[in-house]
Amino acid sequence: MESRHLRYALALAEHQHFxxxxxxxxxxxxxxxxxxxxxxxxxxxxxxxxxxxxxFPTAAGTAFLARARRALCEMSAAAVExxxxxxxxxxxxxxxxxxxxxxxxxxxxxxxxxxxxxxxxLDLREMSSPAGTVALVAGELDVAVGRGAPRGxxxxxxxxxxxxxxxxxxxxxxxxxxxxxxxxxxxxLAAERLIMSAPTQEPAVAARLREGFGAGAAALDAxxxxxxxxxxxxxxxxxxxxxxxxxxxxxxxxxxxxxxxIAPRVRLPDLQLSFRAADDSPVLAxxxxxxxxxxxxxxxxxxxxxxxxxxxxxxx
Length: 316
Prior knowledge:
Radius of gyration: 32 Å
Helix content: 40-55%
Order of helices and strands: HHHEEHEHEHEEEHEHHEHEEEHH
Shape: elongated
Number of strands: 12
Distance between the termini: 47 Å
């Protein structure tokens, strides 16, 4: 039994006449009669009573037609859903990200993606950069946003593009001597109790700090370690010490803290967006389109990376 047989039966029930039903279907009457008879043989029951007044469904026919309508509706819906999935309008996007990315640029990116693809389910997980890389390589994530280039086994199968530059700033409580300053020097920070992200959480940041502090890097060993920027800011507000973090941390400012620039400027590893090179998910493609539109200069970088990847695959 095919979908056309269901349409034939429904047309006959609507028009109650073989000739009129055949005309509505654009076929001749004899083939329609033969097809209805074939359906009845397959079902094993008479579906229509043929009378001088017209053709009417039997009790078996009424039950059959109800299911036939639902079946055709489901088939139509299946085709629609398949098209939506192919266009990345439905499905799931699993993303891992570091907390500071929620300050910028993820609010703009995710907000725009949510509005453009309201039926895509977002599975969002805050995690460190190393953990995000491991999960992405393992296929547990579709996208990872971390700081610095991904490292470790399997990263050669990833596509990575920078989505935001940043530099180091200091945050202190309002009672701290640095609170009234626009800028402090690295050598001054080396004499302070510091608060920073744990090296195990963000190793690229820790490495850059050691490079920037140089001879004063011993101060980093005694630092209070934190998992996220909000804790760094909160501990600074409690006068635990001087917090160190990305400049975008200013977006999470509070009344009881002050931010200071650091001289000389210490550039932090870029925020990087990574995904698996072999991932051809339409949802991922739709998300990358939003990233292109929302993040300055990312579009051309992403296109360049993808073009190089395609060229390598052609050579292989």
